[in-house]
Design goal:
Layout lengths: L1 H83 L1
């Protein structure tokens, strides 16, 4: 009976140590998950910023292409006017 009690106390102590170690590992993994989530959030923010910048560049490019075409048409008109003189 006494031996059984000692054995159960040893098992309980071992189980408590294992539970404490598991909780420690859980906190560690939760910290890693939080860090990973922060990095992911930053990456998503950067990707969104890059997407916005790309859209602005595309808009500027479209305006510049339109301006170049307008200049070309003006130049063609000027040349036609010169030949008519």
């Amino acid at each position: 009976m006494e031996g059984d009690l000692n054995e159960m106390e040893i098992q309980l102590s071992h189980s408590n140590r294992m539970a404490a170690e598991a909780q420690k590992q859980l906190r560690n993994v939760q910290g890693q998950l939080k860090d990973a989530q922060l990095h992911l959030d930053d990456a998503v923010r950067v990707a969104e910023d890059m997407k916005e910048q790309a859209a602005m560049v595309e808009r500027r490019n479209g305006l510049m292409v339109a301006e170049i075409e307008e200049l070309r048409q003006t130049e063609r008109g000027r040349k036609v006017a010169e030949t008519e003189l």
